[in-house]
Design a protein that fits this description.
Largest sheet: 3 strands, antiparallel
Strand order of the largest sheet: 1-3-2
Number of domains: 1
Number of strands: 3
Distance between the termini: 31 Å
Order of helices and strands: HHHEHHEEHH
Oligomer: single chain
CATH class: Mainly Alpha
């Protein structure tokens, strides 16, 4: 391969890889939008995200919450401490393993989550309305392909 071919290849790869820089930008913009809406519940996006995982997986331990959230256990511990202090979650000793605590939403946590989930779905609906159905299908397929190859 000649030097010129290498440069063309690098430029092509560079141009195509610029899409990778769009991911953090989209992430930041979505977080800002969600954060603005969540402020009425005195929750940060990260806290709401953990609340969401608990809502969908009640009765699992902290390690599992960290795993499904793709976060480290220390970050999850801090978030759970905050959520517990706000009376949104509770920790209960496992019957099977007394060293382990299982995480549940409190009645207040369930109420707050279900109210705030409406905000989340409104934002998702707004995003869905930007794209045609086929565009969303292709975008999801492409992103899942990328995720599968990065694992």
């Amino acid at each position: 391969m000649s030097r010129k071919d290498k440069n063309i290849n690098k430029k092509s790869i560079k141009d195509e890889s610029e899409i990778l820089w769009l991911f953090p930008k989209v992430n930041v913009l979505l977080r800002r939008k969600m954060q603005k809406e969540l402020s009425q519940y005195e929750l940060l996006w990260e806290q709401w995200s953990i609340l969401s995982k608990i809502y969908r997986n009640e009765g699992v331990n902290q390690k599992k919450i960290a795993e499904i959230s793709i976060k480290n256990e220390a970050a999850v511990t801090r978030t759970l401490n905050y959520l517990e202090g706000k009376n949104l979650v509770s920790r209960e000793k496992s019957e099977k393993d007394k060293r382990e605590y299982l995480i549940y939403l409190t009645e207040n946590g369930r109420k707050i989550y279900e109210e705030s989930e409406e905000v989340y779905f409104k934002i998702l609906n707004d995003i869905n309305n930007i794209f045609k159905k086929e565009e969303l299908k292709n975008l999801k397929k492409s992103l899942n392909k990328l995720i599968d190859n990065l694992h």
